[in-house]
Design brief:
little secondary structure; 59 residues
Length: 59
């Protein structure tokens, strides 16, 4: 009579996958807002001095 088979051991199932290539660098999207329309420059001026009282010259 043949010897009895050994008791079964724990069943281990492993998934073997090929190595994955490294992830690509993150994609950077640079988006700029359209330029704002140019406003005319603001010109600030001083108020002109008051006109002198009319002087009548007597010659």
């Amino acid at each position: 009579q043949p010897p009895a088979p050994p008791p079964p051991g724990p069943l281990i199932i492993k998934e073997v996958r090929p190595r994955q290539p490294p992830a690509p660098a993150p994609l950077r999207i640079r988006q700029q807002a359209p330029p704002l329309p140019q406003q005319p420059p603001i010109i600030l001026r001083e108020r002109p001095p008051p006109k002198p009282a009319s002087v009548t010259s007597q010659t």
